[in-house]
Write a structure and sequence with these properties.
Arc Repressor Mutant, subunit A, 17% strand, flat, 6 helices, alpha+beta, 2 domains, Dna Ligase, domain 1, 3-stranded antiparallel β-sheet, single chain, 41% helix
Length: 145
């Protein structure tokens, strides 16, 4: 937790109880969490939902958390490890919202070739894959022949 406090101080931000608690919740979870999931993990006695929203916005602006949009209208947040780009992709179940971290990525040569071909510079990418996890696929009724 000390490194998270140091990161807040590095960005000249107050080390408030809610900010520390939100960062700690995100540190303990491998996958991006929605605002309400973070609020639930904190417990209502720690802070209200509006405080969670405000602090996530601040932490995102500081580059300490990354926001994801998986196309379901719910923003999710994940801690960006200190000194790391935190670059990875996700495989998301469209039925139960299971999120799997995908470390494999495109070769840098492909990014650079796309950039050159279209005259872009400084490109980056985000990529999410959607489908059904094994449990949801197995529970799905099979079509009648």
């Amino acid at each position: 937790m000390g490194e998270l406090t140091a990161a807040l101080r590095k960005h000249s931000r107050k080390v408030t109880g809610p900010r520390q608690a939100i960062l700690e919740v995100l540190r303990r979870h491998q996958h991006p969490l929605a605002n309400r999931e973070i609020h639930r993990a904190l417990g209502p006695e720690n802070c209200d939902l509006a405080t969670v929203y405000r602090n996530l916005h601040t932490l995102e602006g500081m580059g300490l958390v990354r926001r994801y949009d998986f196309g379901d209208g719910t923003a999710r947040f994940e801690l960006v490890p200190e000194g790391e780009e935190g670059h990875h992709h996700h495989l998301i179940c469209q039925q139960c919202a299971l999120i799997v971290e995908v470390e494999e990525c495109f070769p840098e040569e492909l990014e650079q070739a796309l950039a050159r071909r279209h005259g872009f510079t400084g490109i980056t990418h985000r990529l999410e894959f959607f489908g059904l996890c094994p449990r949801c696929a197995a529970a799905r009724p099979t079509p009648a022949d």
